[in-house]
Structures are given as C-alpha cells and as structure tokens.
Amino acid sequence: MSRVRRMVVILSAVLSASGAFGQPARSAPQEVGPRLDMVAAQLAGGGYRELPPRKGGALDHRRSERLNLNLEAGRRYAVAVVCDAFCRDVDLEIFDQTNNRLAADMQAGPAAVVEFRPRWSGPVSVRVRLYDCQASVCAYGLGAFVR
Given this structure, which CATH class describes domain 3-146? Predict the structure, then answer.
C-alpha cells in the first residue's frame, strides 16, 4: 500500500469519527476547511506544497462536477478532496485534455487523494463525485499540491 493510500485510509477513519451523522458542529464550509488542512499537513510531510486557491462547493447525493486545474508537465502533483460530516463517500478522478483518465481514487471514504505526473502542461479536469451524501446537499473542499 502506497504512503498516500495509507494516509487516505487513516484520514477517512479520522474524518468519519469526527462528525457524527445528524450532529454537525459547524456549517459545512467551515467544516471542510479544517478537514482539508489535515490532508495538507500529511501531504506536506511527503514534500508537497499547496497550490492556492482551494476550491469547493456543494453537491446532491450521487452528483458530480468538474473543475479545471492548470498544471506543468513533468511535475509530481497530488489532488485531495474532503467532504462534510454528512458525506460518507467522495470520489475523485483526473482527466487530461482528451478525457483520458490520469488518476482516480474511487475507494469508499470521506476523503480522496490522487498522485500523478502530467505529460504536458495545460489544463486537467478534476471530477468530484459525492457518492454517498446523507443530507440533501453535502459540501466538499479540494486542494492541489505539487512536489
């Protein structure tokens, strides 16, 4: 199991335990920021630095949206997404300009992280899918990192 995969498994367990269903301590936008901070700290330990700005939004159960990131060829990137306490599973996919999938984290859990190295500079499409949302809408936060 890779270091990033181990990190996602641990963070998913922590995030699942930190927000009991039906008892959100804060509003969703306030909640996803600290969750993404935990992921950022783990990635920083692996030599990554965050590329601002963070992105985020809210989606209905089993809905997805695409966001674009401009990246440089040959550099190592990580993209992370976390969701709020009502979310049980968020998935993450990265696509190149011709819609080929470069990386994906489709494992169950409230956090997803992928690492990849694009072959050329330019935009990539990031697909965030809130696969299991226990509320009418769940919030998510996304960060990009480079090493």
Answer: mainly beta
